[in-house]
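Task 17 of the worksheet. Students: predict the tertiary structure of the chain below and write it out as structure tokens. Keep your answer in the requested format; marks are given for formatting as well as content.
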Amino acid sequence: MLRFTVNHPFPDPITNAFVAVVNRLLPNGWRFVISPSPRMRYSTDPFITALALTRDANVVVPGFGRLDQITTMEQQSDAWRRRFQSALTRLIGSSQTSSFELIRDDPLNSDQVFVDSYFTGMIDVGDLEHMAPVDAAAALVHTLEESLSREARPTIPGFEHQHQHALAGMEAEVMGGTRLEAEILTRPRGVNLRDPPVGLTFEMWVPFQVPGGAIRAVVRTVRRRTVLQSRLAGFASIEDFRRQVPR
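Model answer:
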């Protein structure tokens, strides 16, 4: 089950942006929906809503994700889109719940959340909007699968366990290769990805090894923890990747 909240007095633009991101990643014939539309419980009273600044679950009404098949005719689409749709179907049908708050252009949190945060339970819709489609699809299913067994009080050991599971799971399935985390490079070199300097714009080169040994790399341009854009690059091998990624 996929559960989403939006803690904002005007929630629909954030929800609609996230739904649009997911739908651009799906193959033809499928539509992602969040129902009911997430909102704050007091959203009928703008004055009370403006005062409800807490992220206490008691003041928000969640929405739940589902997939609708809007045509029965098989249509041509990229293989990764079909794999994304398959992964999303399984996540929605899971007996476990993956629960996230959606944020976008949030001055308090957007610069603290890099695509998602396991510990705060947030997804930054703006990051997903700026990512190449297959990058966004792989990152999103990783995020959702990783949180299926998230503890009520998230811990570092719990995160590490779930992260490793998600790396080998739906992310690899959608991307068509396994992320080699130990081989990630930055341009310039040596950027601390856990705590990037404030205001620094840099590139992350993230290699995925596909069957046969070739590398499909995701290249993200990032300002601290905000994704500005991403693209794909190909290399013959991991050795080729190490040699050719610019400094």
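Marker's comment: The chain has two domains: 2-176, 177-247. Confidence is low (pLDDT under 50) at residues 47-57, 72-76.
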